[in-house]
Structure formats: C-alpha cells, structure tokens
Amino acid sequence: MEKEEENMRMRKEHAINFLLYNMLGVTVGDMCYDKNCKDTDKDRIKAAIIRAYSDATMQGAYNTQLNETLKEQSEKAKKEAGTLLYDKIYEFFKDGSKCDNYDEWHFDLCTKLKEKYMHENINFFTYGNAQKWVNMTIKYLNLIDALSEGFIFHERLCKFQSKFHIPVDSYIIEAIWEKDSLWEKNDAVVYIPFKEEVKEKENMTENPMRDFRNKKKNHNPQNYVKAWSSWAGGKNFEGKGEGSYEDSEYGKFQQEIKNNVIKNSFPLNWENETWIIQAKRRKLREKRSNQDKYEDFGLPKKEEA
C-alpha cells in the first residue's frame, strides 16, 4: 500500500514538473527558498517574463505589421523592455515600500514598456500588448508560487492578490460578452470598448453594453469589440476625464470587472477559472465545426449526445 501511494505521489510530482518545465522551463525542485539556491528567485522572474512575452505578441496584428525595419527595432526594444520589466518586478517584490498604489505602478510600467517600442513617432507595441506582458508575468509567478513551497516572493504575492489585474485577451472578452454563472450579479455591467465603426453604425453615444450584448449575444464579439491589443490605457494616471487612466478603455474595464463582477474573489482566481471555461467552450465549438477532419486520420466522428 505504501509503495502504491509513493508511486502515485511520484507520478503527480513528475506530471507537474513536466507541465511546468514545458511552459516555463522550471520544475518544483528549482523553486526553493534556500541560501544555497542563489538567484533562484531571479531566474523564476526571467522565465515568467520570457513566457509572457509570447502571450503578449502572439496576436497576428502585432507580427503582421512589422516590416524589416520594425523587426530590427522590435528586437532592440525587446531587450530594453525586458530589462525594464525585470528590474521593476524584482524591485516590486523585493521592496514593497516602493509600491503604495498597484494601479499606478502598473500604469507607469506599461507606459514605459510601450515607449520602448517607439519608432518614427509610432508605437508598434501598444498599451494592450504591454498590459498582457505585465499581467501574464504576474500570473506565471503566481502559478509558480502556488505549485511550490517557500517561494521567496510568497508573502508579496499573497498581499497583492486583490490588486492584481486580469490579463485581457480574446477569451476574457468572450466571457464578458457571453456572461455566465461565474458572475456574482446577474445585472452587472462591465465596460468593453466597441469598434468605432460599430459605434457609428449603432449610433452609440455611450457604451450600452448590456442592451447591445443581449441583442447580439449569439454573435462573435470580435465583430463588435476592439481587439485587446488596441485597448488604450490613458496618458495620465492622475485626474479624471479624457486622457486619464481611470477613463481609459483598459482602466475602465479593470475597475468595473473588479467592482461589478468579482467583488468577493481574487482577480487571478476568477480569471483562471473563467479562462479555462471559455477555452473549453471554444474548443467544443471548433470540434463541432471540424468533425470532418477526423476522417483524414481514420478516426471515427464523435456521435452527438
């Protein structure tokens, strides 16, 4: 019996290590808090930053707009931005006294990352790209902490759980559009930015999310909602109105989803569960529309229930 239990424990440990290493290039054994494990915490940040960059730039719009000149600029900017992101996150976790306001820290970091990608007065790396890079880095560090013991930044991660932002991507936009049981209030409304041509066609003077979504609920939100990479974050953190973070597309979304949807939960917990549910839904839709491809491999089609 003891041998079977030990075997099961080892199987789980190896499974977790495989998934972690496949995604981040680390294992649970790497993530120890020991004076002999020099610079382990720094290596984890580096791994999270590298993996998160892929998430931030995987959308076709970023890669397709890069000509040869911009590709060279992008590689140069990536090095400078990566160094900046690493320094700011390490400083944030190491010395909490330097971060009194997480939203302000986040805004300042995303703005500086975006500025690194400036070429001939054009930002080819947007605030939307920057938020995804920062937020996914934090998400991966949170994952590392959850699967390890004694992670050096554990206390800081726990302290800021309620402050962290939800990484905005197409899965989260779909979840907001479709709205499901994860919402604590059925009448909750969350701001999401519509495309300009949609607002003009529908004569939108404001953002009537609830009524418009109910009317178009079975439609693909990509036809109406701006791509997450094009969401603006404002020009100033302080103040209100046009140009402010509070009134920006990204700022409004983060505030309203926290206030109206996930009031009694932590943002990354809600995001993790919501993202998985939405990914399963998308995969199911793809399966239903791609049943014929099974024939290419001699596989039987799945019978409808």
Tell me what you see in this structure.
By secondary structure, this protein is mostly helical. It has 2 domains: 2-159, no CATH class; 170-291, no CATH class. It contains 12 helices and 2 strands. It has a two-stranded antiparallel sheet with strand order 1-2. It starts with a helix and ends in a 16-residue tail after the last helix.
The main sheet comes to: 2 strands, antiparallel
Runs with pLDDT <50, length 5+?
33-38
Order of helices and strands: HHHHHEEHHHHHHH
Label the overall shape.
Answer: globular
**Distance N terminus to C terminus?**
40 Å
What is the number of E strands? Answer: 2
> Major sheet: order of its strands?
1-2
Helix content estimate: 55-70%
Radius of gyration: 21 Å
How much of the sequence lies in strands comes to under 5%
Class based on secondary structure composition and strand pairing: mainly alpha
Count of domains = 2
Quaternary structure state of the chains depicted: single chain
Mean pLDDT figure: 79
Count of separate DSSP helical elements: 12
